[in-house]
Structures are given as structure tokens and as C-alpha cells.
Amino acid sequence: MAVPVSKHLVTLALAVSISVASVEISAQETPAQTASPAIAETLSSLERAAEVTDPGYSSAAVVANTKSLDPAAATKAWLAAVPRDQREKSDAYFEGGYWLLLWNFLLITAISVFLLESRISARLRDFAERAARVRSLQVACYAIPYFVIVATLSFPLNLYEHFFREHQYGFATQTFLPWFREQLIGFGLTIIGGTILLIALYTVFRRAPRTWWIWGTGLVVIFLFIVVFIAPLCIEPLFNTYKPLANVEIRDPILAMARANQIPAKQVFEVDASRQTTRVSANVSGVLGTTRIALNDNLLKQCTLPEIRMVMAHEMGHYVLNHGAKLLTYFGIFILIGFALTSVFFDAAVKRWGIRWRVRGIADPAGLPLLVLILSTLLFIATPLLNTVVRVTEREADAFGINTSREPDGMAKAALKLGAYRKLDPTPLEEFIFFDHPSGRARIRMAMDWKAANLPTGESPATETMPPDRR
Ligand SMILES: [Zn+2]
């Protein structure tokens, strides 16, 4: 489950904080109940068929094994193991997400235009100015009712997307009241975090109405850094319980991989995600000293050790490759460009409609819906770019994961399980636009390419034949 800090805000800043806060990692897989016994059987026979018999120390074995596995054919065979009805269901679920992207964008657009055109935004600003003298307090007096209005108006779509739809596809485990309670907690966090951010941003708007986009970028990046830093300490515990891995048979192989990659064992945890969902998942959260790798209890219950090792090695990839800091940097660049464009569009819009909307300029809180409108439009247009940036880091983590775990079949099986809610075999264009993780097909192909390459595990034969004095 993603940290719901920012669901209501739909601003670039907070949308980004979600992606970073829960560099929510490729590992979410499917509930075991969707993986029928039939498919499990097909998978294990496939595995046997594709098995490499020799670990490949000798070059002769390498040649023989490379010949025996055709990565393209093996990928096809794995994909063919998924029954048609399961494939149709997951395609429908995932493609529904494309439309939700559009509906959410149209909704925040409609809400923003409504608040401006009805001058509710201007009246809210008037109220804030009467209620408080200090500028920062005025921003807070505007922001809190604004968040309440937006959350209320977007509640029906939120309810459908995150409650009914999740139940319809069998992913949700919560009844309405516990779900609603968590929504309220998330909303409380949005109000606290959003109001603090807005007070700081409007201070920048007042001091530097022309160059705010530069200082504002710095401010938002610092804000995101703080959110990511405190997420494992203050935010995640509000929704789930994290504890050190208990099962020794799972823990020891995972800690061995962690030690081999210089990851402190105190940062590998188990989380009770089954409270909210049947999905199998793992994630890395935090930054600097708070970084923590967590695998969820669904994963522990539903996956075999090879799959678990692969998933955890992928998460360790995010940790070792320092993806949190890298994504923060990439998003910082996106925010800078987005704010620069916003600055131009905002001034142009105020010039044209400012009198009608009673919005005075960037430093006027009444212009917040316009700011959100422009930012969410840019965010919507940039969706393929943002997804690609994340997908590329996911692919890096996959490469790290397969090299560390050395579990190509575990990777293929995990990818198929993920296919319960992520389209397995999309077109390249679809993958570019909508996928923030590699598709199942791409992952299985990577696993099969790795398997076919059949890397030796020890010293290469060339080194062994060298005279001792030249080693
Ligand atoms: Zn990942």
C-alpha cells in the first residue's frame, strides 16, 4: 500500500513525495489464490524443462547449456502458462487504471475550475484575511478548508478506485470502516504536511514573485527529503506494524544476501500488509539512516524461497544503487522545469482571468486552485516521462536482483504472480506510457537471458590456466 499522504493533493510536489516515500518496489505480486494449482503445476514442469543441469564451470558445459535454452521461446512458454481468464482479468484491472488516470485528472481540473469560476476560492481568501493578521496564518486558514473541499468532492472517485474496485478484483481485505479510518489518517497527514508546505511556499511567493520557481524547487526537494526521511519513523507505523524477520529459514538466506552487499541486517523487516491487501509486495523506504527494506507477510505466506530471494535481492538493489537519492534528484529536475513553466502559465492566466476570479497574483492564496490546475496538467502530460524514469531504476534493481539472487526461475514466477494486477504482455507504447515497472514479459525475458548466459560462479577457465606467477 502506498503511503496515502498525498492522494488528495494531486500537486506535483506531493505526487512526487508518494513515489519517493514508498519507492514501492517491483515486488508487489499477486495473491496466491489467483495462482491456481493448475498454473503452479505448469510452472514447476516448465522449470524442470528449462533447468540447467550443470552450474557451468567448464566452457563445454557453457556452450551446451546456452544451446539448450532459447530465451525468446522460454519467455513465451512462461507467459503461455497463464490461463486465459486470469490474463483477461488482470488486463482489465490494469487497463482500467489508464482510465482512472484520466478521470482523476479531469476531476481535479473540474474542481479547480469550479473553485475559481464560482469565486469560492476568492471568498475563502477573504475569510482567511479577516480571520488572521499574520500572512502565514492566512495561508493556513485558506489551505485547511481547501483540502477539506477537494477531499470531499473527490471522495466518490476515491471510494470507487480504492475500495470498491479493489474488492471487485479480490485485492482488498478491509471492510469499509477500517478502510475509512485509514483514509481519515491519510487525510490528516495531508492537511498537516500540505499546510506546512503551502505556508513555506507562499512565503517564497511573497518574497520572490518572479524567481519563486527556483527557490520553490529547492524548498519542495527539501520537503520531500524530510517526508521520505520520517516516513519509516512517523508515517508507516500509523498504517502497519514493522518487525524484524522471524522465520529463520527465510531470514538467514536473506541476511546472507544483505551481508554480501554491505546492508546492515537491522534494516530488513517484515510488515503486516495483509491488514489491507492480498497483494504480495516488498519495498524500500526512508533515506540516509532511516532506510529500511521490508517484505510483507503475504509474500512470506505465498511465495517459495527462490521467489522471495529474488524479490528481496531486487529491493536490496534499490538500497545499494541508492535509488532514493537518485529519484529525488531526478524529480528535483522535473519540479524545476514544471515550476518554471507554471510560473509563465500562472502569470498569463492571471493577466487574462485574474479580475474575473479575483486572483491578484502568485502570492495570493486564492490562486491555489489555478496553481494546482497547471501543475496537475503538467504532471498528467509528463506521465510517460515520470513512469520511464521510475521504470529504468526498476530495471536496474531487477538486474541487481537477478545477479545477487541467481534465481531466474524465481524471477519469472514472481513476474507471473505480479501479472495478477499488472498487464503481462503490453505493447511497447503502452509500456512506455503507463508502466512504472517493467512488464512481466520484459522481466521474464531478462531472467531467461540471464539463465541462457549461464555465468560461471568461480574463477574463469582462462584465469585457471594462467601460470601461478602471473595471477
Ligand atoms: Zn523495485
SSE blueprint and pairings:
Elements: H1 12-21, E1 24-29, H2 37-50, H3 59-68, H4 71-80, H5 84-117, H6 120-131, H7 135-153, H8 155-168, H9 176-207, H10 212-235, E2 242-244, H11 248-260, E3 268-271, E4 280-285, E5 292-296, H12 297-302, H13 305-320, H14 323-357, H15 368-381, H16 383-405, H17 408-418, H18 428-434, H19 440-453, H20 461-464
Parallel strand pairs: 3-5
Antiparallel strand pairs: 1-4, 2-3, 4-5
Bound molecules: zinc ion.
Describe this protein with a few key phrases.
471 residues, mainly alpha, five-stranded mixed β-sheet, 5% strand, disordered N terminus, binds zinc ion
Distance between the termini: 51 Å
Summarize the helix and strand pattern as letters.
Answer: HEHHHHHHHHHEHEEEHHHHHHHHH
Output the number of helix runs. Answer: 20
Mean pLDDT: 84
Radius of gyration: 25 Å
What does this structure look like?
This protein has 471 residues and is mostly helical. The chain has helices at 12-21, 37-50, 59-68, 71-80, 84-117, 120-131, 135-153, 155-168, 176-207, 212-235, 248-260, 297-302, 305-320, 323-357, 368-381, 383-405, 408-418, 428-434, 440-453, 461-464, and strands at 24-29, 242-244, 268-271, 280-285, 292-296. Strands 1-4-5-3-2 form a five-stranded mixed beta sheet. A hairpin with a 6-residue loop joins strand 4 and strand 5 (292-296). It is elongated. Bound molecules: zinc ion (ZN). Residues 25-26, 314, 318, 394, 397 line the site of zinc ion. Zinc ion (ZN) binds next to strand 1, helix 13 and helix 16.
